[in-house]
Design goal:
Layout (H helix, E strand, L loop, with lengths): L5 H22 L4 H23 L5 H27 L5 H30 L1
Helix pairs in contact: 1-2, 1-4, 2-3, 3-4
Length: 122
Amino acid sequence: MKSEPPEIAGRAFVFAVRIVKVCQTLDERPGVSRTLANQLLRSGTSVGANLEESKGGQSRADYLSKVSISLKEARETHYWLRLLIAAEILSEKQLTPLLDEANQLVAILTTIVKKLKVRDEK
């Protein structure tokens, strides 16, 4: 059932590690930073976790569902990163590399989901 590029799972894992490190920094701060860190941590680590789950999908529909969830989580992570920048909690310079990777993950996962849906329609 595996049809995603092999590097996507590795990239999602490295992305999650980077998210964890940002969240550790945010967690050291009081107030709203901690709340946002929790949201970012959940979505940012869920991208790779759902890709891993998809590898053991019980059916094609299950596989597509897990990859679709990964896509949704990547989009949510992108949102939280943008919010951290807009609220001036972390600088754009600090988060641009993560924001770029989130964009790339969204693009890759969108392509995978679209291809899976096209195959299912045939």
